[in-house]
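Progress against Task 2.4 (sequence-to-structure conversion) is shown through the following example record, which the project officer requested during the mid-term review.
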Amino acid sequence: MPSISEQPSASEIIFFDDFTSNGLDRSKWNVEITGPVYNSEQQAYIDSSETIYTENLQDAQANVNGVLVIQPRHCPGFVTPEGKAFDFVSGRITTMSKVEFTYGRIAARMKLMPSPGLWPAFWSMGSAKPWPENGEIDIMENVGDPSWTNVAMHGPGYSGEKPLVNKNYFSPGNDANDWHVYSVDWMKDCLLFKTDGELTYHVTRTIVEKFGPWVYDNSKFLLLNCALGGMYPFNVNGIQSPYLGMPEATVQLIKDNRARVLIDWVRVTKVEN
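Structure tokens generated for the chain above:
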């Protein structure tokens, strides 16, 4: 698998963070706080070292040297500034207004802890227009099944769980519980989605324009988050109780402080168009 030591040359790098600093680098990342709630998700996003922090995780075998951790927490009765109540809090970070770019190879090395209703994501979208006109690129999503992750593109006329969505199924013994590099080569007329450098989905401008306008010529920023429950997990697992899309076993995992998303590094490099 690609590691930090296999970085491209400095002239090719648009953005890089290997999370070896003491805490989140605020010159690169914003921490979002819940405002509007989407997809009937069951968490509030907060700015806290309880939900977003770095850890000096040393693992020579996995080529890991420091990680970012996004960790949902059980916080019954938490009330947002808007007066909305939640039983869980979690983390969501972006590079909006700090690092935005047009075209490139966007990649992150991540280790998930799949459990029904945990919804980690690594994605990108534009800041100049409202969704979905800003063009969303989902590089990695998982809603609790360790056997697959999915990618997606969302724009005017093609948002939601179809049509531009694809699942990548892992080989036995090497699933979403393991370290993987999730990436997309974003170019002028196509996007190439990959896992560990292996092509999993290829979408061209021609394919997109069958459903709606191509909205992938604009500057975009990065996002990392871990949502909980909501409509997408529910549509996959059918669970309604105790929380939409999230069973008691996952609630207990969160209560036990074992629900964590680990990010080894995030990198954007130039790519040939």
